[in-house]
Amino acid sequence: MLVVVCGMHRSGSTLVAQLVSGLLTAQSKPVTISSNGLGDTVEEMRERAADPDRIWLAKVHQQARRFREGLPDAGAIYFYTYRDMRDALASAWRKNRLQIGDPERSAQALQTFIRSQIKAAKAFEPRHHLWTGKYEDFVHDLEGLTHELAAALQIQPPPALVNSLIAAARPEEQRKRVQQLSEGDASVRASTFITSNHITDGREGAWKDTLTVAEAQLAETLARTWLKAKGYALCFRRDQAASVPPLRYGRRRRQQPQPQSQPQPPSKRRWWPFTSSC
Fold first, then answer.
1. Is 247 inside a domain boundary?
2. Are the CB atoms for 3 and 38 separated by under 8 Å?
3. Is 265 inside a domain boundary?
4. What pLDDT is stored for residue 262 in this prediction?
5. What's the mean pLDDT in 36-58?
6. pLDDT by residue (tens digit) across 85-104?
7. Range of 78's domain?
8. How far apart are CA 92 and CA 165, in angstroms?
9. In what order do the strands lie in the sheet with 76-82?
10. What's the chain look like in SS3?
């Protein structure tokens, strides 16, 4: 059996993976936390899904096209997490300590981030056995989240296990793990999926404190349809949307190099000219 935690970057997928792992390892069937994602090949991924004697647990984000197109439904359960795309982007900027004006914090990097999240969602969300979690809903309800995950796994955990998992998943415990990892204890990551850049600002709408107006406009333009479908408020009128090329998911044609215009410094202004909902 293959259990896949496949959330958007910076959307609480580590938390979900920790709880899913805790629920699974309390069962009688052996659990292997995959060290190579879904597997090295599509065939290996499908073999894991077809394995009746072992549970393979993988935490992944983006995958190569051959894996996206070959995702199994039989023998597989998927846990997909998502978050306001603008908050996820801002969290990625903070994670990498990218300040305004940093060359790595470019419009191209922003477009790549947004498009990769949407591309992954298109692959994972249609899966037959799928639990979907909205970060803003579950992050402050660990008990409810644990019971939801258990139901998706068709597990009835005893109250003592639920309480133990909740206690281990609290923010203060996560901070301790980050500290252990920063001090060189690599075993922490292997057992809890934690990274040294674990989410530290999970506030809804915190993107307004991080993104420039230009970044926010571009991110919203790219993700506008996705944001509306997920129920997130839009902060820019359509006539204020940034001009960006359409999303393409196939092979890109080689383009002739265009003359480069003089780069302009990014705006540091903070104003959101849409509605009071933002």
1. no
2. no
3. no
4. 47
5. 96
6. 999 999 998 887 888 888 88
7. 2-86+127-192
8. 27
9. 31-33, 55-59, 2-5, 76-82, 130-134
10. CEEEECCCCCCCHHHHHHHHHHHHHCCCCCEEECCCCCCCCHHHHHHHHHCCCCEEEEECCCCCHHHHHCCCCCCEEEEEEECCHHHHHHHHHHHCCCCCCCCCCCHHHHHHHHHHHHHHHHHHCCCCCEEEEEHHHHCCCHHHHHHHHHHHCCCCCCHHHHHHHHHHHCHHHHHHHHHHHHCCCCHHHHHHCCCCCCCCCCCCCHHHHCCCHHHHHHHHHHHHHHHHHCCCCCCCCHHHCCCCCCCCCCCCCCCCCCCCCCCCCCCCCCCCCCCCCC
In a domain, 39, yes or no: yes
Q: 133 pairs with which residues across the strands?
A: 81
pLDDT > 60? residue 177: yes
Judge contact between 87 and 61, C-beta under 8 A.
no
Instruction: Report which residue type is found at 223.
Output: A
Distance between CA atoms of residues 15 and 158, nearest Å:
20
For the chain, what is the domain count? 1
| Domain CATH for 71 | 3.40.50.300
Alpha-carbon span 248 to 261, nearest angstrom: 24
Q: Are 56 and 3 in contact (CB under 8 A)?
A: yes
CB 48 within 8 A of CB 39: yes
Q: What value does the mean pLDDT of the chain take?
A: 85
- Nearest partner of 224 among 84, 93, 62, judged by Cα: 84
- The rounded distance, in Å, linking the Cα atoms of 139 and 71 is 27
Task: For tokens 């959101």, name the residue.
Answer: 272
Give the residue-averaged pLDDT of 141-161: 97
**Could you tell me which of 37, 21, 12 has the C-alpha nearest to residue 165?**
21
